[in-house]
Amino acid sequence: MEIIDFLFAEDQLFTTITLLVLIALLVGNIVTDKLKKYEDIDANAATSLMDDDNLIILDVREQKERKAGYIDHDIHIPLSKVKSQLDQLDKNKTILVYCRSGSRSAHIAGLLTRNEYENVYNLKGGIQAWKRAKLPIKT
Fold first, then answer.
1. What domains appear along the chain, each with residue ranges and CATH number?
2. Which of 23, 38, 68, 83 is most buried (CB neighbours < 10 A)?
C-alpha cells in the first residue's frame, strides 16, 4: 500500500505517469515484435537467400536513391506504389525487401505479410548495411 501511496503522491505524479507510459511502450513493442510475420535479417544472412531461384529482391526506395547503387537483379517499386502493384509480386516466392536504412522496407514487409505473402524478409539496415558489409552493388 505504501508503494501506491508513494507513486500517486502529488510530487511523484509526473514520474508515475512517465513510468506507466514507458511500460506501455515496452509492452507494445514486445507485442508488435511477436505479431510480425516477416523476419529481419542482416546483409550476410540475406546473401544466403540469393541461392534461392524463387527469390524476389524488392527495392522500395525512390528512383533518385537508386543512383547511389542497388542490389543486382532486384525489382524496383517505390514505396508509394507498392500497394497498387502488389499483384506484380508472386505470393509463392520468397521476398527480400530493402530500402536505404531498413525502416521503409519493414513497413512494406508488414504490408506484404498482411496481404498473405508468407516468406518475407526485411534487410535490416537496408542498402547502407549491404554496403558496410562490402557486398556488391550495381550502379
1. 2-34 (no CATH), 38-132 (3.40.250.10)
2. 38
